[in-house]
Amino acid sequence: MAGFLSDLVQYRQLLLMIMVLGIGGTHLSGFQMSVINYTSPYIQKFINETWLERYGSVLHQETLTLLWSFIVSVYCVGGMIGCLCSGYLTAKYGKKKCLLFNDVVLIVATLHTGFSRRAKSFEMILIGRFLEGIGAGIHMNAHVQYAGEISPKKLRGFVNVTSSVFLALGKAVARILGLRDLLGTEDMWNVLLSFSGLVALIQLLFLPFFPESPPYLLLQKGDKAGCLKAMKQLWGEGNYHTEFDDMMKEKAVTKGTKIMNVLEVLKEPSVYPQLSTMLLLLLSLQLCGLSAITFYTSEIFQTASLQESTIPYVSLGVAISELISIIFCSSIIDHFGRRILLWGGYLLMALILVLLETSLLLSDQFLWMRYGSVILIFLFIIAYGIGPAGAVASVMNEIFTLSTRSSAFVIGGIVIWLGLTFTGMIFPFAVMLLGPFCFLIFIAVLVISAVLIYLFLPETKGKSTSEITEEFETRRFKKKRHQTVEKNATEEKTFCTKL
Asked: Which candidate among 114, 166, 234, 272 keeps its CA 20 to 30 Å from the CA of 156?
């Protein structure tokens, strides 16, 4: 731990850049996804009042629900569009310019949401949320890739996990500002929605003082001098020779290979093992049971006889627990590696869900189990933060070369946005049908994911991108050779039988 802290002091400039990247990156995604829950009753009331003032009649509840669902879902639609654009934008213009352009989009978006109340136009909220979704689709991909490309090898896990740290920070900030003691009131909801614009402005002002990522400058632009200058600025004198040699090896391997688009990546067989790994990690993360925990949190807190006024603060405690656990993950991931945090984290989460399922079923017979359920929720969030929440982002960044990374992240981003839409639509019906037994689905997913990760995911800790690619190629070759040997043995057996 002492060595880790001394490294952080040594790479002060890198830490500053991580903070600037984070607050205008995944931090905004976490904030925007969470803040809409705290403004929901006020926005719906605003829509009703605006409609009444315009047309002289009260809006039907079905129409109000439909308009509200548009405001919520248009964010995901914008996210998918932004995600599809991010691959082309980051490949052509680089991550830095892409994020700066994105900040302008987000500022325009928050001007719409912020002034919607004064303009008496709920349509401006729709436009603002759509633009925020586009911004989220772009900066979620650009931030994660940018962070991974500016990190030295010995801190690569820590820097990769910071994208998850800022995502959790955004959720926590939304819960804090959304309290009724602060901005979560009928008079201040539009100010709460406008917070994203302030954060985007901070990144817009400070990010120009930091360099583009060294791998992009060397491998994509062929700017060796610019690459060395960026590495010196971020890492200091004499701390970059190993990383520079690794990039030169990657350049030699990928010489003449341009950055591939999505279709080219999907048609490239050599990338299939990495794509399969990414899909496994993303699907297991989305189906790990976090949505179920979030859904049942308020109900469990109420059955534990917590006062209605204290539940928002306990929920804030859950968000802060997630943030602290992911920060802890960032400090240990370069020591323990990624695999054990993934498969070990999933098994621990499965065990906690088994205990929570038991606690919910027996809570009517044993009242003390209601308090046990509250503790188990906190333990589940902590296990999620220490394990998969941080490690997934790190592995995704490390298993792809620069020529395939942007398009692979587009594919992964589409999976994330589709998953958010799907779980939002299907999960409430699953709860209605299965009740607390819906946790059994997530337990099965967690156990299967842990087994698959243990068997098939190579450790990426301390390895260069070219070394990780070679390991995937070796595994693919061994599998192909094994299949060929089995086929030849079958043919030989058939031939002998015929004789």
From this structure: 272
Whole-model pTM: value is 0.86
Distances (CA, A) of 343 to 12, 24, 331: 33, 31, 18
Question: Is residue 456 pLDDT above 70, yes or no?
Answer: yes
Q: Tell me which residue has tokens 């001098």.
A: 225
Give the separation between CA 342 and CA 280, rounded to whole angstroms: 12
The pLDDT of 311-331, averaged and rounded, is 88
> Pick from 52, 77, 76: which is nearest to 64 by CA?
52
Q: What's the pLDDT band for 485 if we cut at 50, 70, 90?
A: very low
Summarize the confidence of residues 457-463 as an average pLDDT: 87
Q: Considering only residues 484 and 289, tell me which one the structure prediction assigns the higher pLDDT.
A: 289
Tokens of 242: 């190993």
**Lowest mean pLDDT across 220-229, 296-305, 450-459, 465-474:** 296-305
Mean per-residue pLDDT of the chain: 85
